Fold Glyoxalase/bleomycin resistance/dioxygenase family protein.
Amino acid sequence: MITHFAKLELNTVSIEGMKQFYQDQMHFPVVSESQDEISFQPTEYFTLSFKESEESMRPAHIAFQVPFSEFEHVVDVLKERGITLLKWSDGRIVNDYSTGKAVYFRDGDGNLLEMIAHSYVKEDIVTPSGDLKILYLREIGFPIDDCIVFSEWMVQLFDFKLASVSDDFRFAIGGTAHAVIPSKKRKWIPIAMTALQPSMIVTFGVSSTVFIQEVKSKLDAKAVPHEWKEDGWLYFTLHGYHIVLTLTNFPVDVPARLNLPFSIM
Ligand SMILES: [Fe+2]
């Protein structure tokens, strides 16, 4: 099964700008840095990388899961760091809904970030990372022309489960990874940001080489070009999104122990 988002690689117009935001303001450890690339490690199992590019920027959307009991503290820390929290049209900052809370903000490239907490997520399973108490990367946004077709690919290839299903929006969920799949015509909340398709490489952590081989067989059957290494690595492109599956040691029972929907083993 797919257990989590292991890595996200985005383009940037400024390595230094990303460093000032993610290292200085978010306090994410830098794990590697070169002239044209920088990588941060917000949690033990997730790496966020930026590569300098001359392509025009199309901002991404990602959401970090934090403990429900720490949500107000996390919001205070963001404010103390001088991070501008985005407002809804009625002026409020926190999105308070039936099962959770969320706040939104942006990095220097305009990527739309979110801190989200859910009351049903068990808090004694994963040790929070850093002073922003991050449990894991919950969401990556995949704006697409046809979200029905793209989400069905994720269901067929990865055994993902769908939630919040409508014609122009859906979640595709595997483990702790929530692919947010809106139609490009739908705008990102809370600032009505146009949902462009970012240039990105998304690496999913996988629990076994057998699973990777199964996905490879499905790609073969559908004649999707791909690169594969037998020791646990698969790369392919789907509707312009670059996707990698890689074998990791993320504990396979964590999503179920966190009490995440669709994860009961
Ligand atoms: Fe989100």
Notes: The chain has five helices and 16 strands. The two ends are 11 Å apart (CA to CA).
